[in-house]
Specification:
Layout lengths: L2 E5 L4 H13 L4 E3 L10 H13 L5 E6 L3 H7 L7 E3 L3 H9 L5 E5 L5 H13 L6 H15 L3
Parallel strand pairs: 1-2, 1-3, 3-5, 4-5
The structure holds D-ribose (RB5).
C-alpha cells in the first residue's frame, strides 16, 4: 500500500470522494476509517495513519477532519512525520517542494471535494526540491531527536 487515508466524521464525506478519485487514478489505498458519519474522536484516526507512515509501512498519508487542525496536531507528534494542512494550491505545492510533507491534511468543512482532489493531485505530483530545504528538515529532525522523538 502506498497511501493510508483516514478521517473523523467531519471529514468522512470528503474522504470517500478522495478515495474514489485516487482509486480511479490507480493509486493503492489503505482506508483506516472512519466508515460512517457518526461522531468519533479524530486523534484515534490520526494516530492510525501517522503510525503507519512513521514506521515506514506506507509511504504517505492523507488525514481529514472538520478543519484539518486536530489531525495536524496529532500527526505531527509522531517521529518522522511532516503533516501539512493545506487549503490552497500554492500550499499544496509548497508542502511537498519545500517541506517534503509525508502526510497531507485537509479540512472537510473548509475545502470542497473538487478543490481537495486538486490539492491531493498537486501534492502527489510535486517533487521535493532538496538542498537548502533538506538542511531545514534536518534541523527539525535534530530537534525531534533531542526532544526524544
Ligand atoms: C469535530 O467536531 C471537529 O472538532 C474535528 O473534525 C476537527 O475539526 C478538529 O480539529
Amino acid at each position: 500500500m502506498s497511501i493510508a487515508i483516514a478521517s473523523d466524521h467531519g471529514g468522512f464525506e470528503l474522504k470517500e470522494e478522495i478515495k474514489k478519485f485516487l482509486l480511479e487514478k490507480g493509486e493503492e489505498l489503505l482506508d483506516l476509517g472512519t466508515n460512517t458519519d457518526t461522531a468519533v474522536d479524530y486523534p484515534e484516526y490520526g494516530m492510525k495513519v501517522a503510525e503507519k507512515v512513521s514506521r515506514g509501512e506506507v509511504e504517505k498519508g492523507i488525514l481529514i477532519c472538520g478543519t484539518g487542525i486536530g489531525m495536524s496536531i496529532v500527526a505531527n507528534k509522531f517521529s518522522g512525520i511532516r503533516a501539512a494542512l493545506v487549503t490552497n494550491e500554492f500550499m499544496a505545492r509548497m508542502a511537498k517542494e519545500h517541506n517534503n510533507a509525508n502526510i497531507l491534511v485537509l479540512g472537510g468543512r473548509v475545502t470542497d471535494c473538487d478543490k481537495s482532489c486538486r490539492l491531493v493531485e498537486i501534492w502527489l505530483s510535486t517533487k521535493f526540491a532538496g538542498e537548502r530545504h533538506q538542511r531545514r528538515l534536518d534541523k527539525i529532525k535534530d530537534v525531534e531527536t533531542k526532544l526524544g522523538g
